[in-house]
Amino acid sequence: MPKPPSSESPDQSEAFRAYIAEKGLRGTRQRLAVFEATRNLSGHYTAEELLKKSRSIDRTVSRATIYRALPLLIGSGIIREVDVGRDHKYYLTETGSTPFRAQLICENCDTILEVDAPFMEWYGKTVAAKHGMKPISQKLQVTALCETCQKNKLSRS
Fold it and tell me: For the domain that residue 41 is a member of, what is the CATH number?
């Protein structure tokens, strides 16, 4: 069983272990290596980047293990899936910050910035209530050009 890194919260580790046990699954060495890898990655990452980091912890982690672990990590609240409309999804390790966040996505280089969007809670509840509904989830994504890509575009003009 891998030793938890110092950045890992015991609560997160226990939440993940409890979630997989609830699903009737074991906390295998490979699953726990994938969990540990999520705790050691910063920013947005792809499944392939998670595979590479997981293999640095346990070389026996396979691509199939990653793709089977992703729904478990999402379901347990350890990571969040971020779909920006590309040919692959990104993942972000949850840090316990506000759940109302928006993404600014550079159209050119795929840089993703997470920004607080506290108004989203009010807006979602207000609009849903107006139509007799209760919000379950919501997201806000803004596609833009980052500063670097703007400069590159101007220099090519």
Answer: 1.10.10.10
- State how beta strands 90-93 and 79-82 pair: antiparallel
124: containing domain: 97-156
Q: What is the pLDDT of residues 20-71, one digit of tens each?
A: 999 999 999 999 999 999 999 988 999 999 999 999 999 999 999 999 999 9
pTM: 0.73
Strand, helix or coil for residue 105:
strand
Q: Are residues 113 and 72 in the same domain?
A: no
Q: Which two tokens stand for residue 55?
A: 């293999």
Q: At what angle do helices 10-22 and 63-75 cross, to 10 degrees?
A: 100
> Is there a contact between 134 and 128 (Cβ–Cβ < 8 Å)?
yes
**Whether residue 46 sits in one domain with residue 27:** yes
Percentage of residues in the chain with pLDDT exceeding 90? 49
In SS3 terms, 30-88 reads as HHHHHHHHHHHCCCEECHHHHHHHHHHHCCCCCHHHHHHHHHHHHHCCCEEEECCCCCC
- The answer to whether the CB of 101 falls within 8 A of the CB of 139 is no
Claim to verify: residue 104 and residue 66 sit in the same structural domain:
no
